[in-house]
Amino acid sequence: MTYDGSRFAAAGLPALALLLSSCALTKGPDEQVVLRLIPPRVDLAPTAAQGEVKLVPPRAQGVISQLRYVYALGDGGAMQQARTLVWDRPPPEYLERAMAAALQAAGLHVAGSSAPAKPGLRLSPTLLQFEERSGPATHAAVAFDVEVAREGKPVIVRRYCGRAPIRSAKPDVRAAAFGEALDVAVKAFIQDVPGTAMADRTVDCASSLPSSSR
Hints:
Elements: E1 7-11, H1 22-26, E2 33-38, E3 51-55, E4 59-60, E5 68-73, E6 80-87, H2 91-105, E7 108-112, E8 121-134, E9 139-150, E10 156-165, H3 171-192
């Protein structure tokens, strides 16, 4: 049983590649470039579901909840929106689909937030990062919190992060980097789920950045 992660493709590519800079993101070609999600291929467990999980649609605040591509210059730079690069759906939907696919691959039945309440595990994600960052190396940054609630136990919050280098200015390469970063974060999340022995802990998100790209 494996989870291959999210893969992305780009549609409407302009004739010229965009430069990895704020000028390129804000003064690029007039044609809109749409980055779209290709649903991940997941090998489901051959056995019956081992339990039910209620997955609440992820929340996000600010610009990362919108369609326009978000970037920041430097690790501490303010987030800005690209003029012509857009996602085909809001990033929180990418996270929801990736989490649901991973949970199903782990042999769990995923119920939406509108399903009747049942005792069990309730996951409420919040997308914190979904942006391109530069310095010391340009990379895609994805991070999300998950509030974990189980009947009779305290609510805990876990954080999961993924980083992936953006090796080219091409839109499809940018999109693929976000797919890789999302895959890293979701794989870290799903490792906590099968035994339902999730425990609150501090996570160093910087540790998910590949050493070759730091």
